[in-house]
Design goal:
mainly alpha
Length: 69
């Protein structure tokens, strides 16, 4: 099963009209971290996945591609 995190975080960020810089400020990470997540070069730890899912009001399962809703 392919991890869809990189696709989902980019789609959610764009949908919410956030730049990578603004999202990095919200999450407390570097902008380069967001870029690496979106390119699939890096994955966040579980605590960050939870924080991201709360910020976008989606489930962690959705973020990583286990569910499509």
């Amino acid at each position: 099963m392919k991890n869809k995190f990189n696709e989902r975080i980019r789609e959610l960020r764009i949908e919410k009209r956030l730049t990578q810089i603004k999202l990095s400020e919200i999450l407390g990470v570097y902008q380069s971290t967001i870029a690496k997540w979106e390119k699939g070069e890096l994955e966040p730890n579980m605590d960050m996945i939870i924080k991201i899912s709360q910020e976008f009001n989606v489930s962690a399962d959705y973020l990583i591609g286990l569910r499509d809703y």
